[in-house]
Structures are given as structure tokens and as C-alpha cells.
Write a structure and sequence with these properties.
Rna Polymerase Sigma Factor, Chain: A, mainly alpha, about 190 residues, Arc Repressor Mutant, subunit A
Length: about 190
């Protein structure tokens, strides 16, 4: 129990390094820390809360099996989110191939939004967003994620992070400005 308590505040890089060495408790700590964000992210990608838990569970299983592929332990979160992205896209592909056809509809080809080129561009853009988010200060990143991925109000963010609403507004404004600059090339 003491080892588990010592890992409570450990950095992601420390936990990931220990997990690579086979420490199940360290990987469990990472799963508890990043699982909620991964669920929200998967639900946004899939448009379904019901499937997000399955995708996140699959991502953690894949992550555990492939920890040896992790180049930098400090990048465990974006690495796990990339796995979630891949699992969600796999789900969407399966879903697309099993959707019932509408007799009156024209199904001569995939809609333009689902073309391989657009999927690749969307994935690259999403990777760029996560890389930009990684460069934000922690408080700005937390505020932005709670607002933009979880849909929290300013008051809910303030309550969750124990900050004044005015501070939340300032942190969000700075985060948005930074992300706008970072993502300029994708406009």
C-alpha cells in the first residue's frame, strides 16, 4: 500500500518508466490519471458514450502490451491518446461498413468527409493539437480541456480546479490565443 501511495503524485514519466519495467501499479496509476480524459476524447470521436469505455479499455490493453514501443516516457499521454484515436477510427470503420443502406439513398461512394485523405489530414491535425496542448502550462491546459472537451462552464471549471472564475477566464483566453497561433498553419 505504501508503494501505491508513493506513486500518487509521481510524474507521468516516472510512472511510464516503471510501467515499461513491468510495474502494474504504476500503469494502473496512469490509467486512473488519464482514463477520464481518454473517455471524453473517445466519446467525442465516436459520438457515443456507450462505445467510449470499450475503446479506452482496448487502448489501455494495447498500451500495456506495447509499452516497449514507447520512445519517451514523458510522452505517455499523447501516446495513449494516439492509441485511442486509432481504436476509435477502427470502430468508426467497422460501423460504416455495417450501417444499413437506405433503399432511396445514393451510396455510389464514400462521402467526401470520409475519404482517406481527409481522415489522414484530420489525424495529423489532431496530433498537432495535442502537441500544442502539451506545450501549454498545466493550468491553461486543464482549463481548456475541461471547457472544450468536457463542456464545463466557467463556474464548473473554477470549482473543479479551485480557482476564481476570473482566473479561469484569463487562463482560457491565454490558452486559446496560444492554440490559435500554434494551429495557424492548419487554417
Amino acid at each position: 500500500m505504501e508503494a501505491d501511495d508513493a506513486l500518487l503524485d509521481a510524474a507521468d514519466a516516472t510512472l511510464a518508466s516503471r510501467a515499461v519495467d513491468g510495474d502494474v501499479v504504476a500503469f494502473e496509476r496512469l490509467a486512473r490519471r488519464h482514463g477520464p480524459l481518454m473517455r471524453v476524447y473517445a466519446a467525442k470521436l465516436l459520438g457515443s458514450d456507450a462505445e467510449s469505455d470499450d475503446v479506452v479499455q482496448e487502448a489501455f490493453l494495447t498500451g500495456w502490451r506495447r509499452l516497449g514501443d514507447l520512445d519517451s516516457p514523458a510522452l505517455i499521454r499523447p501516446w495513449l491518446l494516439r492509441i485511442v484515436t486509432n481504436k476509435a477510427i477502427d470502430r468508426l470503420r467497422v460501423r460504416r461498413f455495417h450501417e444499413p443502406f437506405d433503399e432511396a439513398g445514393d451510396h455510389a461512394g464514400a462521402p467526401r468527409a470520409e475519404s482517406p485523405e481527409r481522415v489522414v489530414v484530420a489525424r495529423l491535425q489532431l496530433d498537432a493539437v495535442w502537441q500544442a496542448l502539451d506545450r501549454l502550462p498545466d493550468d491553461q491546459r486543464r482549463c481548456w480541456l475541461l471547457r472544450e472537451t468536457a463542456g464545463y462552464s466557467y463556474q464548473e471549471i473554477a470549482d473543479a480546479l479551485e480557482l476564481p472564475v476570473s482566473t479561469v477566464r484569463g487562463l482560457l483566453a491565454r490558452a486559446r490565443l496560444f492554440l490559435l497561433r500554434e494551429m495557424e498553419a492548419w487554417r
